[in-house]
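Lecture notes, unit on protein representations.

Consider one protein chain, 487 amino acids long.
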Amino acid sequence: MNSSYGSTPRQSSYDAIIIGSGPNGLAAAVTLAEAGRSVLVLEAAATIGGGLRSSAWTLPGFLHDTCASIHALAPMSPFFQNLSPDRVPLEWVYPPLPCAHPLADGRAAVLSRSFAETASELGPDEQAWSRLFGPLVRDAGVLFPQVLGPLCFPRRPITMMKFALKAIRSAEAVARRFSGEEARALFAGMAAHSILPFHRAMSGGVGIMLALSAHVGGWPICRGGSQQVARRLADYAVSLGAEIVVNSPVRALEEIPNSRVVLLDVVPRTALRIVGDAWPARYRRRLQRFRHGIGVAKVDWALDGPIPWSNPLCAQAATVHVGGTFEEIAEAEAAPWRGTHVERPFVLLTQPSLFDPTRAPPGKHTAWGYCHVPGGAVESMTDRIEAQVERFAPGFRERILARRATSPPDWEGYNPNYVGGDITGGMMDLRQAFARPTHCWNPYATPNPRLFFCSSSTPPGPGVHGMCGHHAARTALRTRGRRLAVS
Protein backbone atom coordinates (compact mmCIF):
# COMPACT_ATOMS: atom_id res chain seq x y z
CA MET A 1 0.00 0.00 0.00
CA ASN A 2 1.32 3.44 -0.90
CA SER A 3 2.32 5.37 2.21
CA SER A 4 0.30 8.32 0.89
CA TYR A 5 -2.91 6.34 1.46
CA GLY A 6 -4.12 6.36 5.02
CA SER A 7 -6.10 4.00 7.23
CA THR A 8 -8.25 6.72 8.82
CA PRO A 9 -9.31 10.25 7.78
CA ARG A 10 -7.15 12.99 9.24
CA GLN A 11 -9.93 15.60 9.46
CA SER A 12 -13.44 15.73 10.84
CA SER A 13 -14.83 17.70 7.90
CA TYR A 14 -14.16 18.04 4.16
CA ASP A 15 -15.44 19.98 1.23
CA ALA A 16 -15.98 16.74 -0.72
CA ILE A 17 -15.96 13.03 0.06
CA ILE A 18 -15.75 10.56 -2.81
CA ILE A 19 -16.92 6.99 -2.26
CA GLY A 20 -14.95 4.71 -4.56
CA SER A 21 -11.53 5.07 -6.19
CA GLY A 22 -12.16 3.83 -9.72
CA PRO A 23 -10.96 5.98 -12.63
CA ASN A 24 -13.98 8.26 -12.27
CA GLY A 25 -13.66 8.66 -8.52
CA LEU A 26 -9.99 9.54 -8.93
CA ALA A 27 -10.78 11.96 -11.77
CA ALA A 28 -13.32 13.66 -9.51
CA ALA A 29 -10.74 13.88 -6.73
CA VAL A 30 -8.19 15.46 -9.07
CA THR A 31 -10.73 17.95 -10.45
CA LEU A 32 -11.87 19.04 -6.98
CA ALA A 33 -8.36 19.15 -5.55
CA GLU A 34 -7.15 21.25 -8.48
CA ALA A 35 -9.95 23.69 -7.60
CA GLY A 36 -8.51 24.00 -4.08
CA ARG A 37 -11.13 21.93 -2.26
CA SER A 38 -10.41 19.55 0.59
CA VAL A 39 -11.08 16.03 -0.63
CA LEU A 40 -11.33 12.60 0.99
CA VAL A 41 -11.55 9.42 -1.12
CA LEU A 42 -12.87 6.32 0.65
CA GLU A 43 -12.05 2.96 -0.96
CA ALA A 44 -13.55 -0.28 0.34
CA ALA A 45 -10.77 -2.51 -0.97
CA ALA A 46 -7.15 -2.72 0.12
CA THR A 47 -5.96 -1.20 -3.17
CA ILE A 48 -7.25 1.74 -5.16
CA GLY A 49 -8.34 1.68 -8.78
CA GLY A 50 -11.61 -0.20 -9.21
CA GLY A 51 -11.21 -1.62 -12.72
CA LEU A 52 -7.68 -0.16 -12.86
CA ARG A 53 -5.93 -2.80 -10.82
CA SER A 54 -3.07 -5.15 -11.64
CA SER A 55 -1.87 -8.16 -9.68
CA ALA A 56 0.04 -11.45 -9.89
CA TRP A 57 -3.13 -13.50 -10.30
CA THR A 58 -1.44 -16.63 -11.67
CA LEU A 59 2.24 -16.95 -10.76
CA PRO A 60 4.82 -14.69 -9.07
CA GLY A 61 6.31 -12.23 -11.54
CA PHE A 62 3.36 -12.39 -13.94
CA LEU A 63 1.42 -9.12 -13.80
CA HIS A 64 -2.22 -9.23 -14.92
CA ASP A 65 -4.62 -6.33 -15.38
CA THR A 66 -7.71 -7.22 -13.42
CA CYS A 67 -10.18 -5.51 -15.75
CA ALA A 68 -9.21 -2.59 -17.99
CA SER A 69 -6.03 -3.17 -19.98
CA ILE A 70 -6.37 -1.43 -23.35
CA HIS A 71 -7.11 2.27 -22.91
CA ALA A 72 -8.90 3.11 -26.13
CA LEU A 73 -10.52 6.33 -24.91
CA ALA A 74 -7.81 7.82 -22.70
CA PRO A 75 -5.92 9.54 -25.57
CA MET A 76 -9.14 11.34 -26.64
CA SER A 77 -10.33 12.20 -23.14
CA PRO A 78 -10.24 15.93 -22.33
CA PHE A 79 -9.55 14.99 -18.72
CA PHE A 80 -6.39 13.02 -19.57
CA GLN A 81 -5.35 15.51 -22.24
CA ASN A 82 -5.36 18.33 -19.68
CA LEU A 83 -3.18 16.50 -17.16
CA SER A 84 0.39 17.75 -16.99
CA PRO A 85 2.85 14.98 -17.95
CA ASP A 86 5.20 16.35 -15.30
CA ARG A 87 2.57 15.97 -12.56
CA VAL A 88 0.97 12.75 -13.84
CA PRO A 89 3.78 10.83 -15.61
CA LEU A 90 1.88 8.09 -17.44
CA GLU A 91 3.94 6.03 -19.87
CA TRP A 92 1.64 4.96 -22.70
CA VAL A 93 2.87 2.11 -24.90
CA TYR A 94 1.46 1.93 -28.43
CA PRO A 95 1.54 -1.45 -30.19
CA PRO A 96 2.28 -1.44 -33.95
CA LEU A 97 -1.37 -2.38 -34.58
CA PRO A 98 -4.30 -1.44 -32.34
CA CYS A 99 -6.19 -4.64 -33.18
CA ALA A 100 -6.02 -7.84 -35.23
CA HIS A 101 -8.79 -10.26 -36.13
CA PRO A 102 -7.74 -13.76 -37.20
CA LEU A 103 -9.81 -15.69 -39.72
CA ALA A 104 -9.76 -19.16 -41.23
CA ASP A 105 -6.88 -20.40 -43.40
CA GLY A 106 -4.33 -18.20 -41.64
CA ARG A 107 -5.87 -14.94 -42.80
CA ALA A 108 -6.28 -11.90 -40.55
CA ALA A 109 -7.96 -8.51 -40.82
CA VAL A 110 -6.08 -5.71 -39.06
CA LEU A 111 -7.03 -2.32 -37.70
CA SER A 112 -4.20 0.16 -38.25
CA ARG A 113 -3.73 3.65 -36.85
CA SER A 114 -4.38 4.92 -40.38
CA PHE A 115 -7.88 4.43 -41.74
CA ALA A 116 -6.41 4.52 -45.24
CA GLU A 117 -3.96 1.70 -44.46
CA THR A 118 -6.75 -0.30 -42.88
CA ALA A 119 -8.98 0.23 -45.91
CA SER A 120 -6.23 -0.73 -48.35
CA GLU A 121 -6.07 -4.23 -46.84
CA LEU A 122 -9.81 -4.83 -47.05
CA GLY A 123 -10.00 -5.68 -50.75
CA PRO A 124 -13.49 -4.99 -52.10
CA ASP A 125 -14.34 -2.84 -49.06
CA GLU A 126 -11.51 -0.33 -49.39
CA GLN A 127 -13.81 2.44 -50.56
CA ALA A 128 -16.60 1.57 -48.12
CA TRP A 129 -14.24 1.73 -45.11
CA SER A 130 -12.75 5.00 -46.36
CA ARG A 131 -16.16 6.57 -46.93
CA LEU A 132 -17.27 5.62 -43.43
CA PHE A 133 -14.17 6.59 -41.47
CA GLY A 134 -12.51 9.29 -43.55
CA PRO A 135 -15.02 12.04 -42.58
CA LEU A 136 -15.12 10.82 -38.98
CA VAL A 137 -11.33 11.00 -38.62
CA ARG A 138 -11.45 14.52 -40.06
CA ASP A 139 -14.07 15.55 -37.47
CA ALA A 140 -12.60 13.61 -34.53
CA GLY A 141 -11.49 16.80 -32.80
CA VAL A 142 -15.15 17.79 -32.55
CA LEU A 143 -16.70 14.36 -32.08
CA PHE A 144 -14.74 13.03 -29.11
CA PRO A 145 -15.06 16.09 -26.82
CA GLN A 146 -18.79 16.12 -27.59
CA VAL A 147 -19.36 12.38 -27.13
CA LEU A 148 -17.30 12.36 -23.93
CA GLY A 149 -18.87 15.60 -22.75
CA PRO A 150 -22.00 16.29 -20.69
CA LEU A 151 -25.41 16.47 -22.31
CA CYS A 152 -25.62 19.86 -23.99
CA PHE A 153 -26.39 21.53 -27.29
CA PRO A 154 -23.53 20.63 -29.68
CA ARG A 155 -21.08 23.27 -30.87
CA ARG A 156 -21.22 21.85 -34.39
CA PRO A 157 -24.84 20.67 -34.65
CA ILE A 158 -24.73 19.56 -38.30
CA THR A 159 -21.57 17.52 -37.75
CA MET A 160 -23.03 15.91 -34.65
CA MET A 161 -26.34 15.24 -36.36
CA LYS A 162 -24.58 13.40 -39.18
CA PHE A 163 -22.64 11.38 -36.64
CA ALA A 164 -25.76 10.63 -34.58
CA LEU A 165 -27.48 9.17 -37.63
CA LYS A 166 -24.62 6.69 -37.90
CA ALA A 167 -24.23 6.11 -34.16
CA ILE A 168 -27.79 4.97 -33.49
CA ARG A 169 -27.65 2.25 -36.14
CA SER A 170 -27.37 -1.44 -35.40
CA ALA A 171 -24.24 -3.44 -36.19
CA GLU A 172 -26.24 -5.41 -38.76
CA ALA A 173 -27.17 -2.19 -40.56
CA VAL A 174 -23.62 -0.82 -40.56
CA ALA A 175 -22.16 -4.14 -41.72
CA ARG A 176 -24.34 -4.04 -44.82
CA ARG A 177 -21.89 -1.43 -46.12
CA PHE A 178 -19.30 -4.20 -46.51
CA SER A 179 -19.25 -7.20 -48.84
CA GLY A 180 -15.98 -8.92 -47.93
CA GLU A 181 -15.47 -11.32 -45.03
CA GLU A 182 -12.50 -9.36 -43.64
CA ALA A 183 -14.24 -6.00 -43.26
CA ARG A 184 -17.43 -7.56 -41.90
CA ALA A 185 -15.50 -9.58 -39.32
CA LEU A 186 -13.30 -6.64 -38.34
CA PHE A 187 -16.35 -4.48 -37.74
CA ALA A 188 -18.13 -7.28 -35.85
CA GLY A 189 -15.29 -7.37 -33.33
CA MET A 190 -15.63 -3.63 -32.78
CA ALA A 191 -19.42 -3.83 -32.41
CA ALA A 192 -19.18 -6.68 -29.89
CA HIS A 193 -17.80 -4.16 -27.38
CA SER A 194 -21.33 -2.73 -27.22
CA ILE A 195 -22.34 -5.93 -25.36
CA LEU A 196 -25.62 -5.79 -27.31
CA PRO A 197 -27.18 -8.11 -29.87
CA PHE A 198 -26.23 -6.94 -33.34
CA HIS A 199 -29.82 -6.12 -34.32
CA ARG A 200 -30.15 -3.59 -31.48
CA ALA A 201 -29.79 0.15 -32.03
CA MET A 202 -26.41 1.64 -31.04
CA SER A 203 -24.52 -1.65 -31.38
CA GLY A 204 -23.17 -0.30 -34.68
CA GLY A 205 -22.44 3.11 -33.21
CA VAL A 206 -20.23 1.63 -30.50
CA GLY A 207 -18.33 -0.28 -33.18
CA ILE A 208 -17.84 2.90 -35.20
CA MET A 209 -16.59 4.89 -32.21
CA LEU A 210 -14.22 2.15 -31.11
CA ALA A 211 -12.66 1.76 -34.55
CA LEU A 212 -12.45 5.54 -34.83
CA SER A 213 -10.63 5.72 -31.49
CA ALA A 214 -8.05 3.28 -32.89
CA HIS A 215 -7.54 5.39 -36.01
CA VAL A 216 -7.17 8.55 -33.94
CA GLY A 217 -5.65 7.40 -30.63
CA GLY A 218 -4.03 4.02 -31.21
CA TRP A 219 -5.33 1.98 -28.23
CA PRO A 220 -2.34 2.23 -25.85
CA ILE A 221 -1.52 0.18 -22.78
CA CYS A 222 0.15 1.61 -19.68
CA ARG A 223 3.67 0.49 -18.93
CA GLY A 224 3.74 -1.40 -15.64
CA GLY A 225 0.06 -2.33 -15.73
CA SER A 226 -3.20 -0.44 -15.55
CA GLN A 227 -2.70 -0.03 -11.80
CA GLN A 228 -0.14 2.64 -12.74
CA VAL A 229 -2.93 4.83 -14.15
CA ALA A 230 -4.78 4.72 -10.83
CA ARG A 231 -1.59 5.19 -8.83
CA ARG A 232 -0.46 8.23 -10.80
CA LEU A 233 -3.88 9.90 -10.57
CA ALA A 234 -4.04 9.18 -6.84
CA ASP A 235 -0.52 10.44 -6.19
CA TYR A 236 -1.32 13.64 -8.05
CA ALA A 237 -4.51 14.16 -6.03
CA VAL A 238 -2.58 13.55 -2.81
CA SER A 239 0.09 16.05 -3.89
CA LEU A 240 -2.72 18.62 -4.15
CA GLY A 241 -3.83 17.89 -0.59
CA ALA A 242 -6.42 15.15 -1.11
CA GLU A 243 -6.61 12.21 1.27
CA ILE A 244 -7.19 8.60 0.22
CA VAL A 245 -8.22 5.97 2.75
CA VAL A 246 -8.30 2.29 1.76
CA ASN A 247 -9.96 -0.64 3.56
CA SER A 248 -12.83 1.74 4.25
CA PRO A 249 -16.18 0.34 3.05
CA VAL A 250 -19.10 2.74 3.42
CA ARG A 251 -22.39 1.14 4.41
CA ALA A 252 -24.27 4.35 5.25
CA LEU A 253 -23.72 8.08 4.93
CA GLU A 254 -23.70 8.37 8.70
CA GLU A 255 -20.41 6.46 8.80
CA ILE A 256 -18.41 9.11 6.94
CA PRO A 257 -17.03 12.45 8.17
CA ASN A 258 -18.94 15.66 7.62
CA SER A 259 -18.72 17.12 4.12
CA ARG A 260 -20.38 19.69 1.95
CA VAL A 261 -20.83 17.20 -0.88
CA VAL A 262 -20.55 13.44 -1.44
CA LEU A 263 -19.73 11.97 -4.85
CA LEU A 264 -20.68 8.35 -5.46
CA ASP A 265 -18.39 6.33 -7.73
CA VAL A 266 -20.75 3.35 -7.49
CA VAL A 267 -23.68 1.87 -9.42
CA PRO A 268 -27.26 2.80 -8.41
CA ARG A 269 -27.84 -0.45 -6.49
CA THR A 270 -24.83 0.20 -4.27
CA ALA A 271 -25.76 3.86 -3.91
CA LEU A 272 -29.25 2.97 -2.74
CA ARG A 273 -27.82 0.85 0.07
CA ILE A 274 -25.54 3.68 1.18
CA VAL A 275 -27.91 6.63 0.81
CA GLY A 276 -31.20 5.14 1.99
CA ASP A 277 -33.85 7.70 2.90
CA ALA A 278 -31.60 10.66 2.03
CA TRP A 279 -33.26 10.43 -1.39
CA PRO A 280 -37.02 10.75 -1.87
CA ALA A 281 -39.00 7.57 -2.55
CA ARG A 282 -39.81 8.55 -6.13
CA TYR A 283 -36.14 8.96 -7.04
CA ARG A 284 -35.24 5.69 -5.32
CA ARG A 285 -37.85 3.88 -7.39
CA ARG A 286 -36.35 5.33 -10.57
CA LEU A 287 -32.87 4.14 -9.56
CA GLN A 288 -34.25 0.68 -8.82
CA ARG A 289 -35.31 0.45 -12.48
CA PHE A 290 -31.71 0.93 -13.64
CA ARG A 291 -30.80 -2.11 -15.73
CA HIS A 292 -27.60 -4.11 -15.84
CA GLY A 293 -26.43 -6.05 -18.86
CA ILE A 294 -24.98 -9.49 -19.35
CA GLY A 295 -21.85 -10.75 -17.61
CA VAL A 296 -18.25 -11.57 -18.43
CA ALA A 297 -16.28 -14.80 -18.07
CA LYS A 298 -12.53 -14.15 -18.10
CA VAL A 299 -9.39 -16.26 -18.09
CA ASP A 300 -5.93 -14.90 -17.25
CA TRP A 301 -2.92 -16.88 -18.47
CA ALA A 302 0.72 -17.10 -17.53
CA LEU A 303 2.45 -18.32 -20.69
CA ASP A 304 5.76 -20.02 -21.44
CA GLY A 305 6.07 -17.97 -24.64
CA PRO A 306 4.07 -15.71 -26.95
CA ILE A 307 0.77 -16.96 -28.34
CA PRO A 308 1.64 -18.85 -31.58
CA TRP A 309 -0.80 -17.15 -33.93
CA SER A 310 -1.16 -18.68 -37.39
CA ASN A 311 -0.99 -15.18 -38.85
CA PRO A 312 2.04 -13.23 -37.57
CA LEU A 313 0.18 -9.92 -37.84
CA CYS A 314 -1.73 -10.94 -34.71
CA ALA A 315 1.53 -10.70 -32.77
CA GLN A 316 1.75 -6.99 -33.63
CA ALA A 317 -1.48 -6.11 -31.81
CA ALA A 318 -2.08 -5.86 -28.07
CA THR A 319 -5.77 -6.61 -28.73
CA VAL A 320 -6.92 -9.60 -30.75
CA HIS A 321 -10.59 -10.24 -31.50
CA VAL A 322 -11.06 -14.01 -31.62
CA GLY A 323 -14.36 -15.12 -33.03
CA GLY A 324 -14.25 -15.76 -36.76
CA THR A 325 -16.83 -14.32 -39.13
CA PHE A 326 -19.46 -11.65 -38.65
CA GLU A 327 -22.16 -14.32 -38.48
CA GLU A 328 -20.30 -16.34 -35.82
CA ILE A 329 -19.75 -13.26 -33.66
CA ALA A 330 -23.36 -12.10 -34.07
CA GLU A 331 -24.58 -15.47 -32.78
CA ALA A 332 -22.08 -15.45 -29.92
CA GLU A 333 -23.24 -12.00 -28.81
CA ALA A 334 -26.95 -12.80 -29.11
CA ALA A 335 -26.82 -16.03 -27.09
CA PRO A 336 -26.22 -14.51 -23.61
CA TRP A 337 -29.32 -12.35 -24.03
CA ARG A 338 -31.29 -15.57 -24.56
CA GLY A 339 -29.73 -17.02 -21.42
CA THR A 340 -27.59 -19.53 -23.32
CA HIS A 341 -23.90 -20.26 -23.91
CA VAL A 342 -22.33 -20.89 -27.31
CA GLU A 343 -19.60 -23.39 -28.11
CA ARG A 344 -17.64 -20.76 -30.03
CA PRO A 345 -17.79 -17.51 -28.02
CA PHE A 346 -16.40 -14.21 -29.19
CA VAL A 347 -13.19 -13.75 -27.18
CA LEU A 348 -11.72 -10.33 -26.57
CA LEU A 349 -8.05 -11.09 -25.94
CA THR A 350 -5.15 -8.88 -24.82
CA GLN A 351 -1.45 -9.74 -24.87
CA PRO A 352 0.26 -6.71 -23.29
CA SER A 353 3.54 -8.40 -22.39
CA LEU A 354 4.50 -8.45 -26.08
CA PHE A 355 4.95 -4.68 -25.83
CA ASP A 356 5.57 -4.15 -22.10
CA PRO A 357 8.27 -6.47 -20.70
CA THR A 358 7.43 -5.45 -17.11
CA ARG A 359 4.39 -7.76 -17.26
CA ALA A 360 6.25 -11.11 -17.16
CA PRO A 361 9.68 -12.70 -16.51
CA PRO A 362 12.11 -12.72 -19.46
CA GLY A 363 10.90 -15.00 -22.24
CA LYS A 364 7.50 -15.47 -20.57
CA HIS A 365 4.22 -13.71 -21.27
CA THR A 366 0.81 -12.82 -19.90
CA ALA A 367 -2.50 -12.66 -21.69
CA TRP A 368 -6.18 -12.68 -20.88
CA GLY A 369 -9.38 -13.32 -22.77
CA TYR A 370 -13.01 -12.86 -21.89
CA CYS A 371 -16.36 -13.60 -23.44
CA HIS A 372 -19.91 -12.47 -22.75
CA VAL A 373 -22.26 -14.78 -20.85
CA PRO A 374 -25.68 -14.45 -19.19
CA GLY A 375 -25.64 -12.25 -16.11
CA GLY A 376 -24.78 -14.25 -13.00
CA ALA A 377 -23.89 -17.39 -15.00
CA VAL A 378 -21.77 -19.96 -13.20
CA GLU A 379 -21.05 -22.31 -16.13
CA SER A 380 -17.33 -22.45 -16.87
CA MET A 381 -16.27 -21.03 -20.24
CA THR A 382 -12.54 -21.72 -19.82
CA ASP A 383 -12.36 -24.68 -22.19
CA ARG A 384 -14.42 -22.89 -24.85
CA ILE A 385 -12.37 -19.68 -24.58
CA GLU A 386 -9.11 -21.62 -24.89
CA ALA A 387 -10.46 -23.67 -27.79
CA GLN A 388 -11.23 -20.48 -29.68
CA VAL A 389 -7.68 -19.21 -29.18
CA GLU A 390 -6.26 -22.62 -30.14
CA ARG A 391 -8.37 -22.50 -33.31
CA PHE A 392 -6.34 -19.54 -34.59
CA ALA A 393 -3.12 -20.23 -32.65
CA PRO A 394 -2.36 -24.00 -32.75
CA GLY A 395 -0.14 -24.93 -29.81
CA PHE A 396 -1.51 -22.22 -27.53
CA ARG A 397 -2.59 -24.63 -24.80
CA GLU A 398 0.89 -26.13 -24.62
CA ARG A 399 2.26 -22.75 -23.55
CA ILE A 400 -0.08 -22.26 -20.58
CA LEU A 401 1.86 -22.38 -17.30
CA ALA A 402 -1.05 -21.30 -15.11
CA ARG A 403 -4.51 -19.85 -15.47
CA ARG A 404 -7.12 -18.07 -13.37
CA ALA A 405 -10.79 -18.09 -14.37
CA THR A 406 -13.25 -15.42 -13.22
CA SER A 407 -17.00 -15.96 -13.52
CA PRO A 408 -19.80 -13.37 -13.19
CA PRO A 409 -20.39 -14.24 -9.50
CA ASP A 410 -16.64 -13.93 -8.94
CA TRP A 411 -16.70 -10.45 -10.47
CA GLU A 412 -19.53 -9.32 -8.23
CA GLY A 413 -17.77 -10.77 -5.19
CA TYR A 414 -14.61 -8.92 -6.18
CA ASN A 415 -16.47 -5.65 -6.71
CA PRO A 416 -20.17 -5.26 -5.76
CA ASN A 417 -20.53 -2.69 -8.54
CA TYR A 418 -20.06 -5.48 -11.12
CA VAL A 419 -23.66 -6.61 -10.74
CA GLY A 420 -24.08 -10.11 -12.19
CA GLY A 421 -20.69 -9.76 -13.85
CA ASP A 422 -21.64 -6.53 -15.66
CA ILE A 423 -18.32 -4.65 -15.71
CA THR A 424 -19.68 -1.60 -17.57
CA GLY A 425 -21.74 0.10 -14.85
CA GLY A 426 -25.07 -0.72 -16.50
CA MET A 427 -26.53 -1.57 -19.87
CA MET A 428 -25.63 0.82 -22.70
CA ASP A 429 -28.65 0.46 -25.00
CA LEU A 430 -30.32 3.38 -26.76
CA ARG A 431 -32.40 4.35 -23.74
CA GLN A 432 -29.87 3.92 -20.99
CA ALA A 433 -26.89 5.37 -22.84
CA PHE A 434 -28.39 8.79 -22.18
CA ALA A 435 -30.65 8.14 -19.18
CA ARG A 436 -27.81 7.21 -16.85
CA PRO A 437 -28.76 6.65 -14.10
CA THR A 438 -32.22 8.17 -14.66
CA HIS A 439 -34.02 10.48 -17.08
CA CYS A 440 -32.83 13.98 -16.14
CA TRP A 441 -31.00 16.86 -17.75
CA ASN A 442 -28.13 16.77 -15.26
CA PRO A 443 -27.41 13.08 -14.58
CA TYR A 444 -24.72 13.78 -11.98
CA ALA A 445 -26.95 15.75 -9.61
CA THR A 446 -29.60 14.09 -7.45
CA PRO A 447 -32.65 15.40 -5.51
CA ASN A 448 -30.41 15.73 -2.46
CA PRO A 449 -28.22 18.80 -3.18
CA ARG A 450 -25.37 17.24 -1.22
CA LEU A 451 -25.20 14.00 -3.23
CA PHE A 452 -23.82 13.43 -6.74
CA PHE A 453 -23.23 10.40 -8.96
CA CYS A 454 -19.76 10.20 -10.57
CA SER A 455 -19.55 6.57 -11.74
CA SER A 456 -19.78 4.97 -15.17
CA SER A 457 -23.52 4.72 -14.50
CA THR A 458 -23.57 8.34 -15.74
CA PRO A 459 -22.68 9.70 -19.22
CA PRO A 460 -20.51 9.09 -21.11
CA GLY A 461 -20.50 5.61 -19.60
CA PRO A 462 -17.82 2.90 -19.36
CA GLY A 463 -14.18 3.24 -20.30
CA VAL A 464 -11.01 4.67 -18.81
CA HIS A 465 -11.57 8.33 -19.67
CA GLY A 466 -12.35 9.86 -16.27
CA MET A 467 -15.04 12.08 -17.76
CA CYS A 468 -17.92 10.85 -15.57
CA GLY A 469 -15.99 11.87 -12.48
CA HIS A 470 -14.71 15.08 -14.04
CA HIS A 471 -18.21 16.20 -15.08
CA ALA A 472 -19.67 15.27 -11.69
CA ALA A 473 -16.99 17.26 -9.87
CA ARG A 474 -17.57 20.28 -12.08
CA THR A 475 -21.32 19.95 -11.47
CA ALA A 476 -20.72 19.92 -7.72
CA LEU A 477 -18.46 22.97 -7.96
CA ARG A 478 -20.99 24.81 -10.10
CA THR A 479 -24.21 23.96 -8.28
CA ARG A 480 -23.01 24.16 -4.68
CA GLY A 481 -21.68 27.68 -5.15
CA ARG A 482 -20.44 29.30 -1.98
CA ARG A 483 -21.15 26.18 0.08
CA LEU A 484 -18.26 24.47 -1.68
CA ALA A 485 -15.91 27.36 -1.06
CA VAL A 486 -12.21 26.83 -0.49
CA SER A 487 -11.61 25.56 3.04
